[in-house]
């Protein structure tokens, strides 16, 4: 059995088995939901984009810096204020750390120990606190951090190329998707004009806007024009206050759609500490840093997913319950692999497939948008599960590998044999697969994913 499936291979597989949206359904829905026209692109002759996975890859290590790296650091609540939780994650870098330092050993240690402070504030119990995204650099023997947008502009000035201007636009919260191949930028004598979107459509004041921005040589960004292309949903809110949640039994009184999204929100919330634990256990057992970083990144994704599902649940009249996930000791490799085989390689991989189906078939436009974002993240989480299996399972005995393979195939068989029929509203409005559709999807991917 293959124990590795990349994000690209999973996405290709999912798209091949999820049927396209029926043309008639698209026409029927589009009449009321067309996006307003954006800003005129005439006069824009360049294309600027920033990779979500490697945002620094086109940025020059300016100011004689040897090395630039973007990090994120999770924090947890303590009586004296937030403190770092675990090691920081480096998710993009250019150059070579400490390459021109006179004392490279000290430089590298200072870089590893660098932790910016965070402003104290309330953190939710039982889940990681806020994550701080920042840049670290080395320049001869100097080691430093760049945190605020103003500091980024000052550090990278003079802005001499479009790629660096695009990075500053991205850093200021604008989206420059590399999937958009249209011209969206131009170079002028006094800087760069860049077209970019902002906002997530969730909550008052969070309209999705298209913006024409000017970035000058000093890194200052001015908005030349802005158009709302998708009004925000005022019922959507990020974050939760545990004391305001109702007990799980209240979910039964909600609509079928409310119950569906409330259950989803609870499962997403429970996934946060599960990924945090996985990251800690992988680090404990000496797994590659990329696996540890990916697990931490998945925990952050699940915090967002919880907010999205909570918003949808509330929109349909339900209040999700707060999961109680007790802390557990570090497990051995076999126990980690066994859980990963069932929960990751089967259940989470299927969740990514189901999210892909919902992103295509939900009649509600906002649900489609949410599921598009979640499907992308969950596909990465599915690939992470297979990468964890690829690292752990060769380290186990033949007998242990046979038990894990049997558990994985058993979990897949159970999924295929127990598909329940969702409420019609859940099928049509939320786009969840019917029992027949779920069976078809599962059988279509089983040979590639779970066959012996």
From TrEMBL:
The keyword Signal applies. Residues 1-25 form the signal peptide. InterPro entries: Ferritin-like_SF (IPR009078), RNR-like (IPR012348). PROSITE patterns: PROKAR_LIPOPROTEIN. It comes from the Bacteria. Keywords: Signal. This is Ferritin-like domain-containing protein. It comes from Pendulispora rubella.
